[in-house]
Amino acid sequence: MQEVMPATGVFSLLWLLIALPLAGAAILLFSGRKTNKWGPYLGVFTVFVDAIIAIWMLIAMMGNSAEQRTFSQNEFSWMFAGNLKVDMAFQLDQLSMVFVLLITVVGTLIHIYSLGYMSHDPDKRKFFGYLNLFVAAMLLLVLANNYLLLYVGWEGVGLASFLLISFWQIKPTAAAAGKKAFIINRVGDVGLSLAIMVMFVTFGSVGFDEVFGSTSQASEGTLTAIGLLLLLAAAGKSAQFPLQAWLLDAMEGPTPVSALIHAATMVTAGVYLITRSNAIFDAAAWAATAVVVVGVITMFMGAIIGSAKDDIKKSLAGSTMSQIGYMVLAAGLGPVGYVFAIFHLLTHGVFKAGLFLGAGSVMHGMNDNVNMRRYGALRTAMMVTYATFIIGTLSIMGIPPFSGFWSKDSIIHAAFESNTLVGILTIIAAAITGFYMTRMAAMTFFGKARWEDGVHPHESPKVMTIPLIILAIGSTFMGIALLFWGNIETWLEPVTGFEEKHIAIPEWALITITLILVLAGAAYGWIQYARREVPLVAPRGNWLTRAARQDLYGDAVNNTLVVQPSFWLSRFLVWFDGSWIDGFVNGSAAFFGGLSARLRPYQSGFIRSYALSMVGGAVLVVLALVLVRLS
Amino acid sequence: MNTVNTGEAIVFWVCAVLSVLGAVGLITSRKAVHSALWMALTMINLAVLYIANNAPFLGMVQVIVYTGAVMMLFLFVIMVVGVDSSDSLIETIKGQRFLAMVLGLLLIVIMVWGLGSSLAGLPAVGLGEANRIDGGNVQGIAHLIFTDYLIVFEVTSALLITAAMGAMVLAHREHWQPKPTQAQLSVARFKSEEHPGNRPNPGIYARHNAVDTPALLPDGTPTDASIPGALRARGEIAPVDINDGRAIEEADSL
Amino acid sequence: MNPSNYVILSALLFGIGALGVLVRRNAIVVFMSVELMLNAANLAFVAFARMNGNLDGQVVAFFVMVVAAAEVVVGLAIIVQIFRSRRSASIDEPNLLKY
């Protein structure tokens, strides 16, 4: 059982992890043009210091025994309302540690990359401010020790995502994309707030320790409800079905944003939520099944969409959707899969960030053109980008010995441990992954050059390529490092639990089958796009290709199910307000006006008429008196 | 006195009928003066009824104050306004008369019914004892006025003073110019278009010297100025001929 | 015969007075009808004083007479004023307070 240690030594700096980037954001956003020169460097500096502290904390944590790796720091009592007692308190355990490392280290690399990528942008100070705000909110999310504080971080990253997607507000598509992301996220947030409410009603508290300790006291129905609501929240944040429509539009934001938020960190918050709430999902089998179903569906959706997009960033976004589907699937499998979900999350964070930054580097060299049909034969023009991108591609496809192989195959193995059908589906999806990643690499770096006039691709400056190299190194070695040296299974086991079940197929056979299918997919992609001529205008394609280009009609479905009804509702309300409510109000005004117009002539000015009405009143009074008295 | 003895009963019936008659006459007379006279009849009868009810003081006060002073006041004002003025009996406000009849009758019926049923069996204590206590009705009333109802008395006297002052203020006519002297009146008369002197007397003829025969001007034409205004207004002017003065010759020619 | 007959008579006179107020157009006749109503009330007071056996009713009737006298004085003065300016004693004349 975990012993909660007080935050001493380096752990007393827990609050600083959040406070530094938050202060950085405040300074950068409120200081105005004065800080334009050195603002970006401040932004990089805060996250860099955070990374140093995080690594230090990791070393200290590794020095402790497995039961003594949970550190808690209570800043102050935040809410004290009736039975609800919520503190601003942070908790660092093994799970949050790996997240903190991912956020700060990858964040630092992306901040450094942005120095180069956004160097010509006049608003780069604001950009770094928003990025710092995001880092602070994400850290708050993973360090919170209760659901309410997690919700604050949850909302914060949603806000930062909105601000960053629509960073170039002038572009209507960017503004619309930011709005779409925020609204769809909000739907998920409703799930989280409802889950918190149900938790409070059921358990009397929203803190992790209290909730996870008392799951035995709640009925399975309640726990299933909480689980489904948490799944809704995770689906919104991690762009899972049915709330996946925003992720592809979110590529309107600058590439570092896509790398940090929509590949490595924010979209993984959903997986964090599910993994953190493992006690609830372990007790509610139906909710866990729902998680697996959502994961499987999204895994395929993302892969299919990514295979048909010509925009390099949108293709990578489809890939992200698919890989997070893998993670969600693994998390839904229960104790067999939690560890591997996080493992894949970490490796994916590194190689996806590398892929996105590489894409940004390619765009930088091609005058910000994103159309892959206009790329081709870039491997000689941008060698470092090419090398790092290929390493990332091999990693995501799951080719040994790169990191993706270890994490994805663990998930496939865990899938087979639970359900053979799910296992088979994961292998098929891996094959599709091989196809679309090879397609991407082939269209970009191989084949003939299909560049537009006036485009001279060149390698990006060092400030952009060095983070690429570091991430590529991570993509190569992180899998081996985490699995064998870091013992990720035993590291995370105290938090999530870990099981291993026996399956009929031996492990080496599983790996071989997967590899063969992945290489088959890759070969098909190679033949289609490296050997054959890539047309400049996308050919019509079959029905699946066309559907995939329309995001598998995700937008159309949302439009019909949500947007149009909202329009009808508001039009109805306008009509109702105009004719019924206004009618009622105006009608009563007209009624009184008419009534008074009819009554007015009674004031004739004749004294005798008034005397008549007085006598009439007197008759009534006397009548009433007599009747009351005599009856 | 629980019941009423026959003498009082006769007095009651006679006076009741007369007072109702007077009331009806009041509201139906065309001329205001007639209404005032009917009113006086009602009031005298009421005074008699007061006395019959063992309230001699009040009966006397009714005659002196009400009939004597108030009605006289009414008659003076009628004289100021115009004794001859009479109301036309055509009702100008639509539905007023009908509704007034209905409501009035309704009022009377309900009140009579209500009072009749509630007072029917009520025994009357009578004022024998009350009048005897202080040695008479007047003394009894005086006792009450100057002890229990003293404040009311004082306030009412203030009211009376205020009313008198109010009447004076209202009836006052401010003179903005000095009264015209006789000289000024004379000058004004001669300046006006009207004939400044006396009007001519009516014509005296052999056969007529009535007020409605006009006099003749020096040139022989009849003038209407000699005829009183009322007749002139009614157009009752007897025709006259210059030859009316030659009656003796006519008589001679016959 | 019942002492309450006086009260019935008073009610009757009151009603007739009310009718007079409603039906007549001459201001002075209307005023006289109001006086008739006051007199009817006085009669009721006196009758009740007899029925109750104390003189309070008569005292009140006395004061009513005083107040009625004061009221007649002021009211008639007003009517005279109106007549001086408008040359008419009809109460239908001053109807300017209409809608």
Task: Give a description of the structure.
The complex is a heterotrimer of chains A (631), B (254) and C (99). In chain A, helix 16 packs antiparallel against helix 18. Among the domains of chain A are: 284-544, no CATH class; 561-630, no CATH class. The longest helix of chain A is centred in the C-terminal third of the chain and has 46 residues, at 554-599. Chain A is mainly alpha-helical. Chain A has helices at residues 14-30, 39-63, 94-117, 124-143, 147-165, 172-203, 208-213, 220-237, 245-249, 255-264, 269-276, 278-283, 285-308, 312-332, 338-365, 383-397, 403-418, 420-445, 462-485, 488-496, 507-531, 543-549, 554-599, 607-630; strands spanning 4-6, 70-81, 84-92. In chain A, strand 2 and strand 3 (84-92) form a beta hairpin. With 254 residues, chain B is mainly alpha-helical. Chain B has three domains: 6-88 and 96-126, Up-down Bundle (Four Helix Bundle (Hemerythrin (Met), subunit A)); 136-174; 199-253, no CATH class. Chain B has helices at 6-28, 32-52, 56-81, 96-119, 128-133, 137-147, 150-171, 182-191, 229-234, 247-253; strands spanning 215-216, 222-223. In chain B, strand 1 and strand 2 form a beta hairpin. In chain B, helix 1 (6-28) packs antiparallel against helix 2. Chain C is an all-alpha fold. Chain C has helices spanning 4-23, 27-52, 56-86. At the B-C interface, helix 1, helix 2, helix 3, helix 4 and helix 5 of B face helix 1, helix 2 and helix 3 of C. Chain C: Keywords: Membrane, NAD, Translocase, Transmembrane, Transmembrane helix, Transport.
Give a short overview:
Chain B: InterPro entries: NADH_UbQ/plastoQ_OxRdtase_su6 (IPR001457), Nuo/plastoQ_OxRdtase_6_NuoJ (IPR042106). The complex is a heterotrimer of chains A (631), B (254) and C (99). Chain A is mainly α and 631 residues long.
The SSE string of chain C, one letter per element, is: HHH
CATH fold call of chain C? Helix Hairpins
Helix fraction of chain C, binned, reads: over 70%
Cα radius of gyration of chain A in angstroms: 30 Å
Number of helices in the DSSP assignment of chain C: 3
> Which structural class matches the secondary elements of chain C?
mainly alpha
**Numbering strands along the chain, what is their spatial order in the largest sheet of chain A?**
1-2-3
* Shape verdict of chain C: elongated
CATH architecture heading of chain C: Orthogonal Bundle
Q: Which range best describes the helical content of chain A: under 10%, 10-25%, 25-40%, 40-55%, 55-70% or over 70%?
A: over 70%
N-end to C-end Cα span of chain C: 52 Å
Q: What number is the mean pLDDT of chain A?
A: 88
What's the quaternary structure here? heterotrimer
Pfam families (chain C): Oxidored_q2 (PF00420)
GO cellular component, one term (chain C): NADH dehydrogenase complex
GO molecular function, one term (chain C): oxidoreductase activity, acting on NAD(P)H
Subcellular location (chain C): Membrane
